[in-house]
Fold this protein.
Amino acid sequence: MAAELVRGQNHPLTQTRLEIRVSAGRPVVAGATLADDRGAVRGSEYVAHPGAPALPGLEVPRQAAADHRLAVDLDAMPQDVHRVTVLLALPVGTGGPTRFGAVAAPFIAVTGLDGTEEASYTITDLDTESAVTALELYRRGGAWKVRAIGQGYADGLAALFADQGVPDARALAGAIHDAVAQGLARTVAPPPRPADEAQVRAAATAGHASGARPPAAAPASGSGSDSSIDYTHPGRQAPPPPVTAQPAEPGRPAAPVAGDATGWSMEERLYNQVWGMFEDLARTTAAYRSAVDFADSRMERELDQVLSDPRSRVGGRADAAREAAGAKHSALVDRAREALDRDLAQLVAESEVVEPALPAPYAGWDNPCWHAYRSPMELPMAVRLGDLRLPESESAGLRIPMLVRLPLERGLWIDAGTSDAEALVDAEELRARAARTAVELAARLLAAYPAGEFSVHVVDPGGTAAGALAPLVDAGVLAGPVAVGAAGVAETLTRLTERVDLVQMAVRNGMADALPDDLDVAEQLLIVHDFPHGFDDRAVTRLRYLADEGPQVGVHLMLVADREDAAEYGPLLDPLWRALLRLTPVPDDHLADPWVGHAWTYEPPPVPYGSAVLSQVLAEVSRARRERGL
């Protein structure tokens, strides 16, 4: 029977192959240390963390996430390891919470590979701590037990490691946070969650005062998500519940409908529904993969038992044992696949009704809504930057729209370099596709904003993207001529960094009215093509400044670059690459979800071959700008 532990309580373990499941509500770092019989960790090589996730008998996640699964095989532990301590920490430098007292209490469950729970523990009474030893598995009298610990450290991982005797604890903590930062750079940011009560309440109050839409909470899915959603809004009644179609027959699932999620408007409902579909696909795939891993482990264990007896290694008995193990394995995998296919079918049916109902900012270029596009009167909640899929969903043709909140919270990097997924594409063709992708994404952003509220600047030092930039130039939707040469780079960066400085000073001093009358108050997007060509050290410093400080005051960066071209700068540019959301001009599996950390294949939003939709949309943007005298 599963035990619900309290701090300090222990419980015997009946299995040696375990899964430790962590649910924290917000992205956390999960790791583990291996200690000797005195509880000392001999060195960093005995610490499993995102930068070094695998040790004998232990594997931990490679990035920060709200939910984790750690794999533990106690039989495979080295003989000198007597204690496995599971640790959690909040990521550093991400803009998220800096203490566990500001987030929901983390929940830890120790289960067998079949999902049978052995023990669980909710870590309560945390306040200023940013790292915590959650629980430990330890040997006692030849058997293994689990003990709830819940010891927090206000000074973070460095203090935690020092307490366990890890040499050079501070350097190890820094290396872990660097690895986590690189992982988070791959992660698609989830919508704001109502757990951040103060932040959401403040933002909602400000929005209510200005007549703006309240920020959306975490996605509620019409596909079966079990998230608990609180849409409480200051000064307003609760939003109406989603309207769900009734099942045609008792016992059958309800027919999906567009907007089957909570929200104040159909746009918000669709946004939350898409995010719910994203989460549902992530979690059902995680369940399938976990079931397959269990089936593989079980078959391996059964075959090991057969082969451990010399009398049964050969002959009919061995063949029968292998056949029986294979049959059990196939049965388990088939059952898992049936469950996955059932969930995929529901998600495909939902996608088929949701996609046609999406408004232009959320829709693909092939959606008929673009033919009736008119410049909007207000800013939408989000914009579609592409599609996401997993290998398990490819056979069903299921793709999830990648919706990113507006205004953008981080810049974009269109990677013009090659990777394994791009090996069949010529390098020059890849660069050309990267430039076209940047133009198409810029067009989507221009179309999403009301006329005059979004200005686009382009820097193309070598003039190599003239063909790709033609739709923007010919439509007359740029804020000025394309900047070329080193002088053009310097002038554009100087103008935008000065704008950031002015707005920051005005905001800090509460003097927004003192801004110059000729200052363009619209959101700004700077497209930089073929970086670092045409950039000197000063220009690189200003670009990094824009990437870090610009989004907070409405200046956004879209970098079209091959990282190898900037290799001479070495680690100096690592913060720049991490600050930007990497997108690719061809499908590539480099993005991660914020729940379980799957590697998702990203595809840019393609303009249908021979379609004039891009030029038509830009023509409408240009018309609306002219009406505004721009």
